[in-house]
Amino acid sequence: TASYVSQNMGLIGLSCETAESVNDKGIMRDIWNNAGLAVPEYKIVSSLDELKEAINKIGFPCILKPTDCGGAGRGISIIRSYEDVVWSFNFARPYVKNDRFIIEEFLDGTEMTIESISIGGKVYILAMSDKVKPDVKTRVATSLNFPAVLPEVILQKVKKLVQKAVTTIGIDNGMAHTEVIVTKDRPKLVEIGGRGGGGHVFHTCIETTSGIKAPVECAKLLTGMEVNLSEVKKKGCVYRFFTPPKGILKSVKNVEKAKSVKGVLDLDIVKKIGEKVGDLENSLHRTGFVVTKGEDRSEAISLADYIESMIQFEVIAINEENTRDYKK
Question: What is the pTM assigned to this prediction?
Answer without folding.
Answer: 0.91
